[in-house]
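To whoever is on call:

I kicked off a structure prediction for a single chain this morning and the downstream step that reads the tokens threw a length-mismatch warning. I double-checked the sequence; it's 245 residues and nothing unusual in it as far as I can see. Pasting both halves so you can look.
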Amino acid sequence: MRNTIQWIRSLVFIGQMYLAMLVLAIVFTPFAVFRRDMALKAMHTYCRYVRWSASVIAGLRSEIRGTVPDGPVLIAAKHQSFFDILMIFGALPRPRFIMKKQLVYAPILGWYALRIGCVPVDRGKRGKAIKEMTARVKAGLEEPGQLIIYPQGTRVAPGASRPYKVGTAVLYTELGQDCVPVATNVGVFWPRHSLFRKPGLAVVEFLPPIRAGKPPRDFLEMLEEQVETHSDRLMAEAGFKRKDL
């Protein structure tokens, strides 16, 4: 019975979440067309709303831990579900993402992402994609802020393994900026391929920065160790047990 009620709460939450996206787009778009800061305000508003409604409707509370950077840095984050995108984006003052090119065509989200300066990348072209990504990021450096990249390139379910891609190390080296690793446990509560939302406490944690100037291979090893170790800790805190342990 309890599980059935949570399914109903989950479905209600998901439905109103997308309805809220449409409503906010209608309200903000006339202003966002002329002012980029209004596009950012719309997205921040949506992130705050989804976190609040997740707590009220589905019992999924959320918490940001660590020191949130406010200067120009590279953010390299664990990616488990749509919720970590919203939590990270909502916490940062001037965020923009490295995102897969297909998302440009997503209704509402695609236009807003481009409006705030997100960088679309064709993930299937590897070397060419990395060069294209670096060039686009450098071209947009006049817009100071926090550039977010997912080092594994896609959502990774709790307990699953996926390699960290070299593109993150290339950006770190080319930009010459500190990199802030980000760990999370949100996939425990918001699964990748399910509509069920488990109640509990979803956490995104900003970790101490990796200072600029490290050799690319050392950087990538350090990044993976920090993100995976702290994500495992947060998931264990949420009651998740790895099958290989």
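Update from on-call: the warning came from a stale cache, not from the record. Cleared it. Sanity check on the structure: The domain at 62-237 is CATH 3.40.1130.10 (Glycerol-3-phosphate (1)-acyltransferase).
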